[in-house]
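Mods, move this if it's the wrong board.
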Amino acid sequence: MELTSMGLEYAPNNQIQLIVTETIQTKTLCSAACNQLPSCRIFDYDLISKRCRLFEGDSITGSIISSSSSTSIVGIVRISSNLYLSIHNQFCQACPENRYEVCSTNTNKCQCPVHTYWNGSVCALQLFENDTCTQPDACRSDLNLTCTTDCYGNWPKCLPTVFDNTTLLPMPFGVTIAGACNGSSSTNQTLLSAPADILLGYNNTLYVGDNTNQFFIFNLNNRTGQVLKSYSNWPSFLTLDNRTSNIYITLMYAHLAYIWPTNKTIPPSGISYSNCSMSWLYFPTGIVVDSIGNVYISSYSCHWITKWAPNAINGTVVAGSPSGTPGTDSLSLYVPYALALDESNSYIYVADRYNHRIQRFLLGGSGIGVTVAGGNGPGSAVNQLFRPTDIHISRMDGSIYIADSYNNRIQKWQKNATFGITVAGSSIGIAGHTPFLMSMTYGLAVDYAENYLYVSDSGNNRIQRFFLQ
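Not the wrong board. Structure tokens:
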């Protein structure tokens, strides 16, 4: 035990650290009381009032300050790595009735006691709200605190865990990797304005189509983007051609698809018209490319999906009404958006936006669509979607990740499921700009190992990254 000079007392960061206040005749007895209580790491004692206060604290979770009493003194329990060399993570025989570690019934080994964590050298006291932390278990979990970065992924602090009021589960924390985490917008290279689709490329890169008509590339470790191309209109959806590494981009309001960096177009003439035809595009939305170069493009206003063979001057309808009329039955689409391709099973998936569902079509089949998510009208229930915009098919298990735009969330529908699970955003569709909420989710991407989810949080002018648990 180490004693300070007179005239000092202990000030904890949180009053919950005060274990007990007693009247004791001497500082030696106060020191003994602290020593007999494993959770006590510091005490203060006043020689005149005989007040003895025991704390679950130290110099990190509190401060030694000047006291109004000149006869007050502070005692500190010495904690060093040498105390743990022969006990930590050893079998329980090494720590019977030990002051510094306890026997874990789960592992039958000596582990840190409650309200402490192993920092590599000692069992350090867990931290309180807004304290700087360095590892997940460094914060007081009994107070629902989690070691969390700021919205840009920097400066980890102990912050309150936010729980979903419906599921009662902790809400995923989003880190802003492009744009401003506070939702502000601009036209420079560090801020975005209503970003649309996103695409994960090679070498840790992210491509973004922005409402400023610019096509950006970001390194995932740098929020300053580079403008690859400025278009005449909004780059709406993106896809990567794995054969050539070219990126296909639809410009919805320009009625064209561009191939970057070759600057070729679909249709090859580069001429746009304002009606539905097999010879050109009309409000193109989703786009995907298969392994032999066939391009599939959905149309916002023609309510169909067309297939364009390499260098073709005309497309052919593969899903939706050949007359370009919307509908709600299994043969029809109503404002189709993003596409996803499953070549191994010859399926194409589409976000059937105004029908609030995800449809699957067999390529070369009868044209009858199967509803694989949603289809129960617009809403925020677990079996509903509300104007979905983007989809991703898991290569691991066939689950579907859905940008549920008007519900401000990302839903995951497992294969053959009848309901979705919220993996980012509010489960009941609440919009917001905190790291836990989103507004008008537009595009999404999942990394190859399916560890991280990236979301174009369009209403907040930012790209968010979530850890997939």
